[in-house]
Write the structure tokens for this entry.
Amino acid sequence: MRDLETIEMALRIAETGHLTFATLHTNSAYSTINRIIDVFPSAQQAQVRTQLSLVLEGIMCQALLPKASEDGRVMALEILVPNAAIRNLIREDKIHQIYSMMQTGQDKFGMQTFNQALATLHHKRLITLETAMQRTSNADELKELIERGSGLNQSYTGQGKPTVAPGSHASPYAQGRTIGERPPVR
């Protein structure tokens, strides 16, 4: 989505109940939300924030990074799953507070900041520390996550077995499950 007309149409389609996918060239959930809202004239931005808060189902920002083994690339993924608090922050134009909600919503909602993704990839020895430090926008936070051993999403061990019992997350899509396994129908 690169222009006002396209973004306006995507919001309108989503409001009618259609699942709408779109791509933007942004590097964080925060900048994605800002890009969508800022493309509109200031007189419309409050309405757009309300619309977006009602229809947004998720934001994924991805980057392909060189593997430490130098035999390919691995994806680092920032994930935003809008819960009631995040929807409220969007409506109230407090988008700068979303990042802290993402930091604390990792296990319960399946959210992940880009730094948490980088720390996880480094802990799993999939990327080098140098690569992680080159790609972060907050080096101090990333160093702290790596030193504490944080960043690892505890709902999935990577061994084919989820460690979080199905049904314990607020979102059916945030459940710990094996790759390819679909969420249960409610």
